Automatic annotation (TrEMBL):
Residues 6-175 form the NAD(P)-binding domain. This is Uncharacterized protein YbjT (DUF2867 family). It comes from Actinokineospora auranticolor.
Length: 285
């Protein structure tokens, strides 16, 4: 039995789909009954030790992917404690890249949770992706309506990766027992102006407008402070620490990672672009 905590998130759902496709018995801890065909569900909150304990009963493996937020570290640490007590054989954690003293607060908390896993002696795999292609959908409504979106990163190239590739690596680790710490990227680092150019080429004229951090903070007015700070921290870090793609996804999965061109084609209507023939899958660098 493989348990997924975070199974209603983008990566968690993809992990559940991958495990089901391989016929692996799966269980998800969810707050409310959810449309997850073929998945056993335990109803409860990951912050509740009793619910986590129930979900982990008889578990051979665990995929842990909590959404970012002020309670994330405490919740994840509680799950790790319960996983150790339940003698879960293998824990795969969705983590974040960067050093232990990263200027990004969320990255630092991920490292502290990783250290807790190590201290318990749990067999583990840590997955450290950069930004997901799926995060671009945050801008989709604005792009569809106005044809532009803001950033503070200028022409800086970013390591974006498809969340489904991250999920496939997680499924591979859970089913074959592969361990280690893996930084995951797509086939190329891409700047936001290049994303705009790709959307323009796809039929939706799009501009990326570079603004100041204060202007971005104002643009994000209404979002929680922690989220605004997180966005500003990761965008600033990308401009001070160059990001370079690697071959980890292709090495672990035996195939190239999904390309941004294909992702944008899949989601063309969301951005206001016409649906056309899919571009050829790009190879890894």
């Amino acid at each position: 039995m493989i348990v997924v905590i975070g199974g209603t998130g983008t990566t968690g759902r993809a992990v559940l789909r991958g495990l089901r496709a391989q016929g692996v018995p799966t269980r998800a801890l969810v707050r409310t009954p959810t449309d997850l065909p073929g998945v056993e569900q335990v109803i409860g909150d990951a912050a509740d030790p009793g619910a986590v304990r129930a979900a982990l009963t008889g578990a051979a493996g665990l995929f842990l992917a909590m959404g970012n937020g002020p309670r994330q570290e405490a919740i994840e640490l509680g799950v790790v404690d319960e996983a150790a007590r339940a003698r879960v054989g293998h824990l795969v954690k969705l983590s974040a890249p960067g050093p232990e003293n990263s200027p990004v607060a969320v990255a630092r908390l991920h490292h502290r949770v990783e250290e807790a896993v190590r201290s318990w002696g749990i067999t583990h795999t840590f997955l450290r992706p950069y930004a997901f292609f799926q995060n671009l959908l945050f801008h989709a409504d604005r792009i569809r309506a106005t044809g532009w979106f803001p950033t503070t990163t200028g022409d800086t190239r970013l390591n974006m990766v498809d969340a489904r590739d991250v999920a496939d690596v997680a499924v591979n680790a859970l089913t074959f027992g592969a361990t280690g710490t893996h930084v995951l990227t797509g086939p190329e680092a891409v700047s936001y102006p290049e994303v705009a150019a790709k959307l323009t080429a796809a039929g939706r004229p799009t501009r990326c407008v570079n603004i100041t951090p204060d202007e971005l903070r104002a643009d994000l007015r209404g979002a929680p402070d922690w989220l605004v700070n997180h966005v500003l921290e990761i965008q600033h870090l990308s401009t001070t620490h160059p990001e370079h793609p690697n071959d980890t996804v292709s090495r672990l999965l035996g195939r190239p990672p999904r390309s941004l061109d294909n992702f944008l084609h899949e989601h063309a209507p969301a951005f206001g672009a016409p649906t056309t023939t899919p571009p050829q899958q790009a190879a890894t660098n």
